[in-house]
């Protein structure tokens, strides 16, 4: 199986009742067998049940894990895009409250592709990269949306253990819409590949500077 991020040879990593997972020998990406993915309609049905929104204090607190370190890099008046804003856009509002000018894009809930035809001072992508069906294309697209010198703020749970046993029991992997998993090594690979500076803030928050 070829890696969905870097096209290198990947080895079988583990298997559960639903599907097989592969791990790349070069970029360390772990990905679900592309033949076992849900249809887009099935996937959207699951997203429709997500009830997070701007009135949810807990959700705001969760998003602050990215917003606070990212805000440190930005100045008021900067223009940003929240890529994959989901059914209850919230991070864009939080950043607007901090003086940013925000646009949103979401393949299902805000599908105006006009937002993807320009560049921004920064792009946020929270709980989205684990859903990428074609990570090679999606990461290139994300990075293409950022002006030189701009920032990309990503939130996705990285897999920081080694063994397939631990991966198999990982709750993050249990969501059938989660199909692309990154390790710190994968994030470093992305930074090198696209010539970005990387700051790994935590197991869940990564900042890239173009
Ligand atoms: Zn790879």
UniProtKB/TrEMBL annotation:
InterPro entries: SAM-dependent_MTases_sf. One of its GO terms (molecular function) is methyltransferase activity. The keyword Methyltransferase applies. GO terms for biological process: methylation. The keyword Methyltransferase applies. It comes from the Bacteria. Keywords: Methyltransferase, Transferase. It holds the Pfam family Methyltransf_23. This is 2-polyprenyl-3-methyl-5-hydroxy-6-metoxy-1, 4-benzoquinol methylase.
């Amino acid at each position: 199986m070829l890696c969905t991020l870097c096209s290198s040879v990947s080895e079988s990593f583990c298997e559960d009742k639903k599907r097989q997972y592969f791990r790349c020998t070069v970029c360390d990406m772990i990905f679900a067998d592309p033949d076992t993915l849900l249809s887009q309609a099935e996937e959207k049905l699951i997203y429709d049940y997500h009830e997070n929104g701007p009135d949810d204090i807990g959700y705001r607190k969760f998003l602050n894990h990215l917003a606070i370190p990212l805000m440190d890099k930005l100045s008021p008046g900067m223009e940003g895009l929240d890529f994959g804003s989901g059914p209850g856009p919230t991070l864009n509002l939080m950043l607007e409250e901090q003086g940013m000018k925000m646009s949103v894009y979401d393949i299902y809930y805000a599908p105006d592709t006009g937002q993807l035809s320009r560049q921004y001072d920064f792009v946020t992508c929270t709980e989205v990269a684990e859903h990428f069906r074609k990570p090679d294309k999606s990461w290139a697209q994300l990075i293409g949306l950022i002006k030189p010198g701009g920032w990309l703020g990503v939130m996705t749970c990285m897999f920081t253990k080694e063994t397939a046993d631990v991966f198999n029991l990982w709750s993050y992997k249990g969501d059938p819409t989660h199909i692309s998993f990154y390790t710190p090594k994968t994030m470093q690979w992305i930074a090198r590949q696209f010539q970005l500076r990387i700051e790994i803030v935590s197991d869940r928050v990564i900042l890239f500077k173009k």
